[in-house]
Amino acid sequence: xxxxxxxxxxxxxxxxxxxxxxxxxxxxxxxxxxxxxxxxxxxxxxxxxxxxxxxxxxxxxxxxxxxxxxxxxxxxxxxxxxxxxxxxxxxxxxxxxxxxxxxxxxxxxxxxxxxxxxxxxxxxxxxxxxxxxxxxxxxxxxxxxxxxxxxxxxxxxxxxxxxxxxxxxxxxxxxxxxxxxxxxxxxxxxxxxxxxxxxxxxxxxxxxxxxxxxxxxxxxxxxxxxxxxxxxxxxxxxxxxxxxxxxxxxxxxxxxxxxxxxxxxxxxxxxxxxxxxxxxxxxxxxxxxxxxxxxxxxxxxxxxxxxxxxxxxxxxxxxxxxxxxxxxxxxxxxxxxxxxxxxxxxxxxxxxxxxxxxxxxxxxxxxxxxxxxxxxxxxxxxxxxxxxxxxxxxxxxxxxxxxxxxxxxxxxxxxxxxxxxxxxxxxxxxxxxxxxxxxxxxxxxxxxxxxxxxxxxxxxxxxxxxxxxxxxxxxxxxxxxxxxxxxxxxxxxxxxxxxxxxxxxxxxx
Length: 509
Description:
The protein has helices at residues 21-29, 45-54, 75-86, 115-120, 132-139, 153-162, 193-210, 247-260, 278-290, 305-315, 335-343, 411-416, 430-440, 467-483, 485-490; strands at residues 11-15, 35-39, 61-63, 70-71, 90-98, 104-108, 128-131, 168-179, 214-218, 225-229, 237-243, 266-272, 294-298, 320-324, 328-330, 348-356, 362-364, 367-369, 375-377, 397-398, 406-410, 444-455.
């Protein structure tokens, strides 16, 4: 602290009943007037000690610093710079780990504020800086940090403060070094299973406060959670499947839907685009006769994925639309429920799924704007069991875009933004543009790893392998560069400027 470039700070220390005389002796030797010390007679735990330190504060903002961790010398400078520029209520930075040998490890380059990700894991963590009046609101006359949430008291605190604000600013710089003491959460989360369970209680309590019907389950990895929201009513889902012949793929897709899907309230609209094979006609007749939920339409235009889906949407009777490629097969039986629990939320736009290649490697873990020039799929070719970057392959989170190979959206919302852009983006990037336009309207797009399907990518439309296709692709890139210049220039808010754009692995591989 005494090495900070920014001079206007106070350090408020609560000694939590230390029994070693050299500790209290060291504290009594401090003569810096900016350092305030409260010696507690008895150990009160992390919550009690933190509250005692908070009682000493006089600043407009409060930052939390564990006694064995370090700030970078420019940490408070960048915090104050952010305060002056953005007037936020809550500020957080990137962080890394500091080994006992003095090495800096595991930098966590975080996304900007993601309401769904903070329910899935405490990615905000360190360095967290709060406007003091926001902490007062969260405490509501009670304690700032609550007993009973030990090990996840910081997660509980940030969730309670977020009940009162969305003025959150992320500083994409490592400003905090989290020391890896043996037995600490920084060294190994498994060493504090009670912290995982405390975090589960914190998230569950948040759902109750916000009136969200659902349950909080422990996630696949320590410190992660799944908020499973209750489906409201029994809305009809219209599954829109464009196809051009290839009856073998269509059969696999439809059979997987009919055989595995647990949600009963859906209809399937197959949209034939210039199909001519007799086997395709026979297959359509077979499914139409066998299941009244399935019907087929013809839209014989030159292939235009956006226009075909827009056409299908006008014939759909469901409250929610599910855009689905014909080269998909269902893995998780409750796949529709996993999408619908988010699509039903009034603040949510598009909802996307976790997709795999047939070899069980990831094909889609969400879309990152800027990768490869315009946009790319996150964590491509990662093994199915790989956690991904800080477990993000297994966490519900907000992203700028998701693929329309499997995308759910409210029909009313699809119509509000006039569907997909079939004029400028006939084939490529129409889903990315669709999602970005939803974001421009203030909606959150959601990626859920709990809806899983196999994707035999592009077997239907093939690749950009003719001069005409290549020219069309060039024009679509140019349109995206113009239409979405701002996010391409400023960067994807759910990525991080410190992560690479020439790779889709978050720099992990």
